[in-house]
Amino acid sequence: MAVIRLGLIGCGYICKTHLKALKELNDLSIAVTALVDINKEAAESTKQLLPAPQNCQVYGSVEEAGDDSYDAAVIMVPHHLHVEIAREVLSKGKHVLLEKPLAISIEGCRELLALAQSTDRVFMVAESAVHWPEVVQAIKLIKEGVIGEPYYAQGNCFESIGIDDFDFCEVPDWIYDPEKNGGGAVMAGGVHWIRPLRLMLGDMDKVAAMTMDAWKTMRAETLAHALVKFKNGKQGVLHFHYSDIPMEKIPFFQIFGPKGEITIHGKFEGGITVHTKDKVTTDNCGGYWGSFKPQMASFISALKKEEKITEAHTGSVSEAVKDVLVSLAIYRSVEKGGWENVDV
Q1: Domain count for the chain
Q2: Three-state secondary structure along the chain?
Q3: How do residues 329-340 score in pLDDT, each as one tens digit?
Q4: What residue ranges carry the coiled-coil annotation (predicted)?
Q5: Which domain CATH number covers 283?
Q6: Within this chain, do residues 336 and 219 fall inside the same structural domain, yes or no?
Q7: Has residue 88 been placed in a domain?
């Protein structure tokens, strides 16, 4: 089998996580041949993490990388550049794995959706939460009827920046800039919590939200609450909180049904507990960081099959659009002071 040449575009903190997943897969048919970052020092630093022997070049831009340095790209640039870079890479006939969120505007989402529908390349969105082992297990238990038909769920995304036992990961400076991030806590990490609730309860119909700028380092909302009405009549709550103070750990997710409740522990290292009338069981399925290896495996599988991502695929652009629409509806709700439709 011919080697698939992979380009990593954006060599910041999340790049290391994707690279670790690649190394864990140990697939000799995949070779990282291009590292692209406006900061070439960051790219050179990433190059040192590659297994020897290294046959990889460093570039300062997608344009500099040219048309023949890679076959597929993982795009991990600041959010406001997603549309521009994805458009440029797809125009070169390359396959794409694009980090979440898909875009930070409705117009950006529509452009990338149109590109996904017109291209014959693999175009997948890296929403890691769909591969989060505890989320996968919760969805399996729901389908098996362990807690009955769920009627309510809540998601809590919280991060204490700089607190050793709490820090999600190294946070780049651009995350604090709403023009580059697309907002504050909702777009920074909260969007990862939207998809699991959709997978557990269904597509969202309306939201009513309020936010607060409580931590001035992040120049947008650091606290957000959203009541959620689902299209099937179910209900939920989303809570996002970024700060630099220690916080009591609360569940990342709780899903309630007439026969029981599922809790995904508020620890990135993992944990899930199921409460039913008869018993309580606890397990560790691998934790949040266990999501990146199966996500990369899914992308590589599509590359090998040269298989276009269908709309039903968990990594499809159309599914990623729905996550962004929820985020944007939260912002509109805060601005207008009432319930906002998710679909526009």
Answers
A1: 2
A2: CCCEEEEEECCCHHHHHHHHHHHHHCCCCEEEEEEECCCHHHHHHHHCCCCCCCCCEEECCHHHHCCCCCCEEEECCCHHHHHHHHHHHHHCCCEEEEECCCCCCHHHHHHHHHHHHHCCCCEEEECHHHHCHHHHHHHHHHHCCCCCCCCEEEEEEEEECCCCCCCCCCCCHHHHCHHHHCCCHHHHHHHHHHHHHHHHHCCEEEEEEEEECCCCCCCCCCEEEEEEEECCCCEEEEEEEEECCCCCCCCCEEEEECCEEEEECCCCCCCEEEEECCCEEEECCCCHHHHHHHHHHHHHHHHHHCCCCCCCCCCCHHHHHHHHHHHHHHHHHHHHCCCEECCC
A3: 999 999 999 999
A4: none
A5: 3.30.360.10
A6: yes
A7: yes
